[in-house]
Records
---
Amino acid sequence: MTPARLIIRAIRRPGSIIHPFQRPVLLRLGGQRFNTTESHERPATTATATTSQKKQVRLTAESYPNIKRDSRFAKLTSEDVAHFSSICPVLSAESDDIEAFNTDWMRKYRGQTRLVLKPKSTADVSEILKYSNSRSLAVVPQGGNTGLVGGSVPIYDEIVISMNSMNNIRSFDPVSGILVCDAGVVLETADNYLADQGHIFPLDLGAKGSCHVGGNVATNAGGLRLLRYGSLHGTVLGVEAVLPDGTILDDLSTLRKNNTGYDLKQLFIGSEGTIGVITAVSIICPQRPSAQNVALFGVNTFEKVQETFIRAKRELGEILSAFELMDDTSQRCVAQVTGKKRPLDGEETKFYVLIETSGSNKEHDDEKLEKFLMALMEDETIADGVLAQDETQARNLWSWREGIPEVCGHWGGVYKYDVSIPLKELYSLVEDVKARFIEYGLLGEGEAVVDVVGYGHMGDSNLHLNVPVRSYDKRVEEVLEPFVYEWIQKRRGSISAEHGLGVAKREYVQYSRGETELSVMRSLKNHFDPKGIMNPYKYIKT
Amino acid sequence: MTPARLIIRAIRRPGSIIHPFQRPVLLRLGGQRFNTTESHERPATTATATTSQKKQVRLTAESYPNIKRDSRFAKLTSEDVAHFSSICPVLSAESDDIEAFNTDWMRKYRGQTRLVLKPKSTADVSEILKYSNSRSLAVVPQGGNTGLVGGSVPIYDEIVISMNSMNNIRSFDPVSGILVCDAGVVLETADNYLADQGHIFPLDLGAKGSCHVGGNVATNAGGLRLLRYGSLHGTVLGVEAVLPDGTILDDLSTLRKNNTGYDLKQLFIGSEGTIGVITAVSIICPQRPSAQNVALFGVNTFEKVQETFIRAKRELGEILSAFELMDDTSQRCVAQVTGKKRPLDGEETKFYVLIETSGSNKEHDDEKLEKFLMALMEDETIADGVLAQDETQARNLWSWREGIPEVCGHWGGVYKYDVSIPLKELYSLVEDVKARFIEYGLLGEGEAVVDVVGYGHMGDSNLHLNVPVRSYDKRVEEVLEPFVYEWIQKRRGSISAEHGLGVAKREYVQYSRGETELSVMRSLKNHFDPKGIMNPYKYIKT
């Protein structure tokens, strides 16, 4: 990197142009074959995926034969449908449109609901749950249906409560930055509304064009802004929710400080519709940054990546908004599959880091970033680097990070894990898994495993482990599991950093939670929902 | 303000030199006379307070005759004491030192414990609770005993579990900034430890020299850094707690992202020892800012204060660390009582704002703040202003904010409320209360009420309403209550912004929480602590 390349130009992060709802790549997670991609990343367009889309999606009840319909639940009668129709618009089994509510967007999960309810108000939701609870009819709250773990579609005949029609912004106070909106407001709609007022929604993810604010809160979505704005547990100030018996819990505070009893709303953040339906959210929204920069650089060791991260936090401090890690394998994959010229001219390094800054003063941000990068170059903490000089360059740099999940599917399939690991050991999982494949003779030219790829939100300690394969192979699975889960468990990591549990991970939660924690969780579920009607068969086994 | 005064020098916020544990001022809250001060503010040294300190502190059981000892609880036997002595060091009724654990630091609350336990480990706490629960012996967890609502001292013969001896820093990862420490670590000790590593504890308050990290979490302390670093609900990553039956709940995650079930730790944040004892905390600690600035300026209307706040957030954005509001009445009181020259030369304005910035680059921060203030002066949003040029000046500017609670007690007494109100109406409470006093002929020369003072953490929507009086008067109380509580209730404000409920506010919580919320809270309390042994008679009436 010569100083001449350090000229910085105003750019915009291109996140808003990425739409995840195209054709997904054939992936595997936890030994199971399925179509997915991270919600905030560009999906693949492989032939395999295209073929799979044409098929009828397999019923979740068939994919998970160990999940039996709970006989405690009543079966829907025509009287029930008539009653629900008196509350709000409904979509019944006769409608062709009902399948869209039964099937998730990845086309991995398919339920068997015979009724979709479209409440228009919190009172409607209350009436719905009161009746459902009294009749022991199971329900599934559904937001934008953009989840990755099958949490928002039914498995058997659970009634879908679609939040699509509850989509009003209730209030916004430009002085405090506090937004109150219905749960069914689309994230992008909320963010666009805020942009007009000079504010920003403190959460960003690729599914923003479809996902609901209520669904974001119900799943505790992480996304791209967590490093800067923190988690929803800190930014959400209030929640309005309807409890399983129809009681409306109005905890829709618009206060930053309110120490008057247990912080009930926190229980609903990340509860995935298992203890109630979130109907509205109050959230504090920061000022929208006026300046953004993107840089990409090569680093030779993970120790130096950590050193870079420490120094980025110290020297860029308040303006650092992304710190993304990519290993060389991931970058070679992107180059090979896309045929694009790699952004750095120098020798290949083991790691690459993408940094983004967002601040209130462009000149200051430029100066901070330039000084930071020059110092890192001078003492050889980083080996090479480039700074985006315009929006096109910034988008190109981001594409080397965001293109990874897509290209990993290029060879036929990919085993994929989305995990949290304490930062010091973040990359060791990739190395250990790779060593195992070599030990078992499964990695290399002509072998099942193409390579082992690691990348992710370094700033959030969130690693994506991807294993691109030429074909799915039982031997590969046996090397991966339970090794990966046990490895994570030993380091007190998380088997689900940001995607939640849903159906996909309810069998694996014990790798990240102790029996005491699970027992307290089960007792809370039972406390709030003694009849178990809320989003059954998911989250945690009861 | 001339440009010449805009020269900025490196300064340090003087917060760390303020110690609240001196002689407190005689105050009233909720119509009751007591000694207190805000935990992060300089206390008063009035003759009244000195006199009151010499007296034996009245038993809380006498001050609150409606609180009766719960007959479900067993009485301590010599066998119990022997058993507890086999677990950990104890302080028995014979010890002169026991009174320090019975009485709060304000000398307002006094309990009647006959046993203090000093566990040295989580296992000790577990043994203690297991036995206490089986015997139905009530307990009170006690941290630094620096609370303002009587939450950490017993009322009757509850056994005190002092966390003083659990004071180890368990780990710190300089890469992620994540600290794990025992609950009994003193906040200042933790912050000093972090300072050596270039990090900062994301919470600051005047009691930092005595309060415990575990107590901070148990009471969801707000303090001085909330505007910048957010609440503990966002920064605390994990909690280790012992449940009332002795079960150890190990939710001591060191992960920023972990979406595997209900976020149990959140229930303990702000639970005031009513559902378990927090024994350790994991928290993410930002890089310590290297630069700080302080400015004070006068503003003519509350609309312009709000405008200033919006622009401060936009233009100072990422470096803004305090935005404190003081009305002119408060500043006149400080000037009158202290005899100090007011910091601004110009005409008096109705409001004054103190701004603090903290950032990673002094020059940039200076430039941002200077540009911001010049623009506000030019378009007359602010009327006058001054920028601290060194640490002494900064400390002087802070003293005009921090000196308010002390001087309010100058005339004989003060009625005091610490509340959250939606920002738009933050100051209206002061105006409405003042109007009522005028209407009732109670305000002015020779009348009971000296004036009505408003100030507080504007950035957090947290108002301190102070009514300095020449003498306590039933008529004054009748004007204030229930008016103030009803006024707050109408605006969905909070009757306790940051101090919690304890004994002091358990009677008033319904002004900030609906019956449904309270009912869910009660059911949760009963769920976790069916025998009710944890910190009884406080928080929420069961």
---
Amino acid sequence: MRTEFHQQLDAINSDLARMCELAGEAMQLATVGLLTVDLEAAERVLTELEVLSRMRREVDQAALAVLARQAPVASDLRVVVAAVHITSDADRMGGLAAHVARIVRLRHPDPVLPNDVVGQFTEMGNLAVDLAEDAASVIIDGDPVRASRIRDDDEAMNDMHRRLFTTVMSPAWSHGVPAAIDLVLLGRFYERFADHAVAIAARVLFRSTGDTTRDFGQ
Amino acid sequence: MRTEFHQQLDAINSDLARMCELAGEAMQLATVGLLTVDLEAAERVLTELEVLSRMRREVDQAALAVLARQAPVASDLRVVVAAVHITSDADRMGGLAAHVARIVRLRHPDPVLPNDVVGQFTEMGNLAVDLAEDAASVIIDGDPVRASRIRDDDEAMNDMHRRLFTTVMSPAWSHGVPAAIDLVLLGRFYERFADHAVAIAARVLFRSTGDTTRDFGQ
């Protein structure tokens, strides 16, 4: 039987996983807004992220309360310290989805994306959602298969990001400077989103091993 | 007389302040590299940041040790929790200086900056250094004057960042897409650097008041 203390840690982890899911849902919605020039989707991202920010404050408070009342040590302590980092990463993932939504809103009713990069952003959006879901799953069960898929998807995201640079920097680019800048910033938002999922996976690893030499990817 | 426990907290805070100073020195050196097309300066940034990353791991470990052995509560607990966030922010500030240095290295021997934006980046570099120094100072003494100067300098940085967008997106921009992209990314690195200094000031505030409603600016 789990003690009350371990039930508190379970509740924190379950909230952390939910935060990652919310960040993934926000990036999915922001990507829909981007791909289909959907202002309403973009606006909804910004509203729904308020839930994520509220959860962050609640989980941070819960973690502080556990530290103050239970004075955990060893791996239990690392779970709580990892938690306060993970709330920060998940909230930041939501913030990056908000950045995508804001660019959609800023350019509306014009599309942000020229047709020839819609496929690239579809793929980056799918990767981002997978990464957030895998991060949620790794938090709950530490599944090493999912953790290694996070690394692979992050690599794939970095490749997409580099490809985007090649596209907009090529002499064949015909959409001008403002469109190029939007694309480079969007690419960076998706790439940073992936980095935070990697950071979460590294935090989970630290939680069980105490290993701080892994790149936390920030 | 300070107890051994409070001496440990003082040592952590002193290391955090040093980390901010190192991040500021790295951004100063990266800006010198950028403004004077100095490859050696850019390379030195990358080497010197290893010290910052090592300090981050050491301070994170020291904070964990304090939590495990001393089980602090109330404001002492908040000092330690703030510390693990601040190491992350300061290390990330160093990472952003590294991003600037890498662009300098990538374009070398060509300059990254067209002449007409050298003044803007000189100013952004100065703001970044001031922000890092003020963050260091706020960590040590919580000086509200310095804390409010961080807010002002961050606002000034945001203005510079917006001005940069106006410059490169203007029809008068004559330096092409690749230069525009470099500038927008550089602008974002300086602006994010400032955001982390703001986050550090907010953490220091949380440390003394427990207030988590302030925007941690990530």
